[in-house]
Design goal:
Elements (H helix, E strand, L loop, with lengths): L12 E3 L11 E4 L4 E8 L2 E4 L11 E4 L4 E4 L2 E2 L4 E2 L3 E4 L4 E3 L11 E4 L4 E4 L10 E4 L4 E4 L10 E4 L4 E4 L2 E2 L3 E2 L3 E4 L4 E3 L11 E5 L2 E5 L9 E4 L4 E4 L11 E4 L4 E4 L10 E4 L4 E4 L12 E5 L2 E5 L10 E5 L2 E7 L3
Parallel strand pairs: 1-2
Antiparallel strand pairs: 2-3, 3-32, 4-31, 5-6, 6-9, 7-8, 9-10, 11-12, 12-13, 13-14, 15-16, 16-19, 17-18, 19-20, 21-22, 22-23, 23-24, 25-26, 26-27, 27-28, 29-30, 30-31
């Protein structure tokens, strides 16, 4: 009679390092870490990350899911603006150098070690720009028009600020491009908006949702002009977070309260419903960094300050350690 191993299953290999391209269902023993591992298909979803050290909302940020920076913000229970900066390593937040001017509702762009923050509200509305090098902030050229709740995209030396709100003028159509030193006006948005979800680059940006009125509209920027895409988001909302690129984005949270945990993904053609966030890392005033399959959500509020952080992992193959439980 044939041995069982010859008619079903596969050998469990003993390897010093995990395979470079494992297949779904493959199992191996890593002799270096002394762990049994396997490759599975994991559906998309959110996982809880480490809480921020100071609880606040209306923050801005930059970077990736495992190397993010968050700055500014507001505590509505004490009516206090923050100049706080925190860095995230994929597990915990650590305090870093403070902003030159405490403010909220800023825009942000760049990486954890080369970020830029701009605009916001003190009050009054702010046109200030500050650059971050991974430890300290330095003042730079001011926006042409002071405003808060701006849409943002790009890098520290090629940033984009668009829309926003100024008091008492209201929602804005303005677009400004940053070259690392100064801001220059560019093509206006077709519709005045603030608090929209946003992501992308200076020459390929995406905007979704926003106010006022509360909208589900989608707009795309090509480095000179904005175009309204006929595909709107599935639900109208504002003060939401965004991550990704113009053709592969993830937008989440926002308000009114019916939208607090809602998530939608964009493939450059249409919006699709995705798994909801777990807690108030979504909610109103949430901020997002990263890409559409590996995003970070923080700063959100559902009427209380929690400091919650959530990490989004897109559907696909993933390596898991197999334990007795």
């Amino acid at each position: 009679m044939a041995d069982y191993i010859n008619i079903r299953g596969q050998n469990i290999e003993v390897v010093a390092s995990d395979p470079a391209n494992p297949t779904i269902g493959q199992i191996w023993y890593n002799s270096t870490s002394n762990t049994l591992k396997g490759q599975i298909y994991q559906p998309a979803g959110w996982a809880t990350g480490g809480n921020q050290t100071s609880f606040r909302t209306m923050q801005a940020g930059a970077g990736t899911q495992t190397a993010a920076v968050a700055f500014g913000g507001y505590n509505f229970t004490t009516s206090t603006n923050f100049n706080t900066t925190e860095e995230y390593d994929g597990a915990t937040w650590t305090s870093s150098g403070t902003l030159g001017t405490a403010r909220r509702e800023m825009g942000g762009a760049g990486t954890q070690t080369a970020a830029v923050g701009f605009g916001g509200r003190i009050p009054p509305d702010s046109a200030l720009t500050e650059e971050y090098n991974g430890s300290t902030w330095t003042s730079s050229g001011t926006l042409g028009t002071a405003r808060g709740y701006v849409g943002d995209a790009g890098t520290q030396t090629t940033a984009l600020a668009f829309g926003g709100e100024s008091i008492p003028a209201g929602a804005s159509t303005l677009t400004e491009e940053y070259n690392g030193a100064t801001w220059t006006s560019s093509g206006a948005m077709p519709v005045a908006k603030y608090g929209m979800g946003s992501c992308g680059t200076q020459t390929a940006a995406l905007s979704g949702g926003g106010a006022t009125p509360i909208t589900a509209i989608t707009m795309e920027y090509n480095g000179a002009t904005w175009t309204t895409n006929p595909a709107s988001m599935n639900s109208a909302r504002y003060n939401l977070g965004g991550a990704g690129t113009q053709t592969a984005a993830l937008f989440f949270g926002g308000e009114p309260p019916t939208e607090f945990t809602k998530v939608e993904s964009w493939d450059g053609i249409s919006w699709s419903i995705n798994p909801a966030t777990l807690t108030s890392s979504g909610g109103a005033f949430t901020y997002g960094v990263g890409i559409s399959t590996s995003a970070l959500s923080f700063s959100g509020t559902e009427g209380y300050l929690s400091g919650a952080t959530e990490e989004y992992i897109g559907a696909g193959p993933v390596t898991k350690t197999i334990t007795a439980s």
